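2.7 Reproducibility. Because tokenized structures are sensitive to small changes in the input, we list the exact sequence used for GntR family transcriptional regulator, including any N-terminal residues retained from the expression construct. No trimming or masking was applied before prediction.
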Amino acid sequence: MVSAVLGTEEQNQQPGELEPVQRKSTAAIVADQLRAAIMYGSLPPGSQLGEAELAQRLGVSRGPLREAMQRLVAEGLLRSEPHRGLFVMDLDTDDVADIYLARLAVERAACEQIVRHHRVEAVAELTAAQSRMVAAAGKGDAIELADADQEFHETLVRVSGSARLQRMAQTLLVEKRMCLTALQDKYHADIQALVDEHRGLVDAIEAGDEALLLSRLEGHMNDALDRLNGSLAE
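Resulting structure tokens (single pass, no recycling of outputs):
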């Protein structure tokens, strides 16, 4: 009954009609900035977060900063050490394997929902995301390519329609990017293979072939994990 009512309201909404603006709290904005700093290595693994320094750099009071940092503790991106403070998480080979185990579970569930309920939307959005990967690969820009790769997988989970899968994927993708940033001098991917693998995922979705999609997703995750493990071993 509720879904029927919601559906009616959506149908009655006219294009261009004003809607309430969703505004983020200061703590949420600060959390986004800290998350990005961790992802891109400005706050590297193992580094300690100085509350006074960060508050000054961000131009915020300590209250929202503390709330933001506790969010990242809950996400597993920061760790709290009694009498010492907060530190960015370190990631070892076991952590990397666990990240990809969890990523596969989350993105597998997202793919199942996409094939069954959101194929048209997914093909359109993922094709655009994969095109940005192609453009970045053509320029030989490793950072832009990593950004486009990240966007592809964020889009994959988002178009599944599951807010909970999105929340789980957010931290996992930041952790994955932490690994790539820390290993940027050692990590060497076959760029064309990477681009082709993502195109293969889109093609499987377009074909509506769930088994093929899940097989390609698993292969893609395993290849990425093998490359990361090889870089960690060097």
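The radius of gyration is 20 Å.
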